[in-house]
Amino acid sequence: MKILFASSEVYPFAMSGGLADVSGALPKALRRRFVGCRVIMPLYSSISEEYKSKMNFVCSITVPVSWRRQYCGIFEYHMDGVIYYFIDNQYYFKRDGLYGHYADAERYAFFSRAVLEAIPHIDFTPDIIHCNDWQTAMIPVYLNEFFAENPLYKDIKTVYTIHNIQYQGKYGMELYGDVLGLKEGREGIVEYDGSVNLMKAAIQCAHKVTTVSPTYAKEILDPYYSHGLDGILKTFTYKLTGIVNGIDCDVYNPETDPQIYKNFNAETIENKAVNKSELQKEAGLPEKDVALIGMVTRLVKHKGLDLIKCVFENLIKEDIQFVILGSGEWEFEQFFTEMKEKYPDKVALKIGFDQRLAHRIYAGADIFLMPSLSEPCGLAQMVALRYGTVPIVRETGGLNDTITDSADGLGNGFTFKDFNAHDMECAVRRAIDGYKNKEGWNVLRLRGMACDNSWSASAGSYIGLYKELCGSKGDSK
To answer: Is residue 256 part of a domain?
Structure first.
């Protein structure tokens, strides 16, 4: 069984969010399960020269983009047992940042077509192309429209994963002829509510549609969560399944992590206290035995920041501390800046992103707060568990699938159901009270560290899905 994993970003080459984590970790996990998996992505100018200098040039071809043909270079790189292919075109990919350019639709239409055009040149004919988010949504469409009768392609199946349904690749219908290049009369494939909608097209054309947690797969059938796509998803519910993401346990391992202050594991959990003390010092907070609440997040409403804003000054009266890392909407950046200035002994803030500090917050905090409005999967709560930091989450998406409330003596965190500031406040207060019971708190931390959120289980679920599509081929390596 051979899988070609197509993604617009892959860790460690290019990253803007959780998609890169998944694209970096899942193929490695599949390889460990003896599945032939290779990865294909754009060759961005921002990719480090450390990697570029070791890439091998495979060949150059031309790729049709509607009425024109564009240069496409194909490069190959080997790392950790996985072969990576990079699609080169400087006009499309020599730009600052990954996304947010006026020509994004054309850039990723080119990439989607290039993935298919590259197959005869890479000595790897996949049984399945696994596509991810709107940037690769045209792969199932182009496969059906232009390659279905070609003997090399006719047995290839497609899996399409929705990582966040909010970002659908929506554009005006003028894109249809000038960029997408589909035949006249086929507008219905990409049209939805009067616009081009690339995610809708992939849902319609792919053989299977997945999303990144079982709860999110149910939620996106509801108009509250679907951002308008519930109609098409209900039509194709038979294709839809939810598989929770894992985390890369090599990257997030408190026993070996070089970015934290002192390594530890379940047997040396006392060393977590060193990480807390050092984090307090680095953050400019007093070294006190109080509940230290950490947040590594985008500072946006979607992440539940308005709930925190509503009750923050109620909570800060407690003997607690907050350390916050993130950036986002001005409203929340300004709010936490004001809180830091007003409560300098209780609130630490860094605007921006710092991978090293993020790891140190996971390792040093006692509690990790994620009150999201919606969360397709979420990785931070699973990382927090691995570092013995107890999550507080709202029961949505992957947060609901990975964190259970400890009130029953069996759970691994604290949860609340409704998107309500006072319900969140109640969960935080329960966690603060729990922290004061040192013996019970240690049991809870160790229970979280024992949770298996590795990619191994998730990879097994994907392999089952691939085998379902491949039939007898799925039994071969």
So the answer is: no
